Amino acid sequence: MAAPFFTTPFQPYVYQSPEDVVIPFQILGGEAQIVQIMLKPDEKVIARPGSICYMSGSMEMENVYQPENEAGIWQWLLGKTVSGVVVRNSGQSDGFVGIAAPSLARILPIDLAVLGGEILCQPDAFLCSVYDVKVSNAVNQRIRNIPDGVEVRLNNIPGVQGFLRQKLSGRGLAFVVAGGSAVQKNLEVGEVLSVDVSCIAAVSSTVDVKIQYNAPRRRAVFGGENQVTAVLTGPGIVFIQSLSFHRLAQRIARSVASPNMRDHPKFLLQIALFFFLAYVVIITSLILTDG
């Protein structure tokens, strides 16, 4: 069985697959974590590009195209990665590889065999995997139980784009990242939990997902936090993150960039008034000229 996700620093765990494949691993660190995976000869791990931190001398690394990624060519055109890094132990003795989280995040080891063989994650949540794990990134994958009109409006709200578009399936062990601190909620049958959409790291496929607006639609034009929440109904497991990468990047950008019009609504009104007066002057001059 895989470890619980709330691992303490330097605590070792052992993963055992349904076919009795045993793979030890450790999750190191407290904030920006590293997972160290032990590999026997000819064993391999598939990782996200750019995530390899260190490895023993017997390891061989290869960047390969992953044909299982749905709509891979469209992802490539839109700037998404469609490749993966395969690290294989080509030596005669045990080796190890260290894979780092891409930001200030926790690493969650998830045994897909325990969760029915499938889990839905936020985009780019996948970090690495061992044994049997398939990563699917469907560009047109719709949120379940969301009407078409509502889904279109969701795409215009920051932090909601690509909501749960990464699907992990198989019977192996997957490592996903959750920004900030992480909380696991086990929902019973019919139990309801409301979570901000940007705070959901992953949910099991048995969880029913619905979207709920917390403010009038017009507020989406002027921004704001916590506009949309996901109403999750059990049974199933929900992994919650306190600080998504999108929210972190947004806050950093706000702190270093010059103030925008949304932060100064008076400036926006002044611009609107300027164009209105200019329009009036132009129309008045045309009327006087024709007269």
From TrEMBL:
**Taxonomic lineage of the native organism:** Eukaryota, Viridiplantae, Streptophyta, Embryophyta, Tracheophyta
Q: Which UniProt keywords apply?
A: Membrane, Transmembrane, Transmembrane helix
List where the protein spans the membrane: 228-246, 267-288
Q: What is this protein called?
A: Altered inheritance of mitochondria protein 24, mitochondrial
Which Gene3D superfamilies does the record match to this protein?
A: Mitochondrial biogenesis AIM24
Keyword field contains Transmembrane helix: yes
Q: Check the record and name the InterPro entries matching this protein.
A: AIM24, AIM24_sf, Trp_RNA-bd_attenuator-like_dom
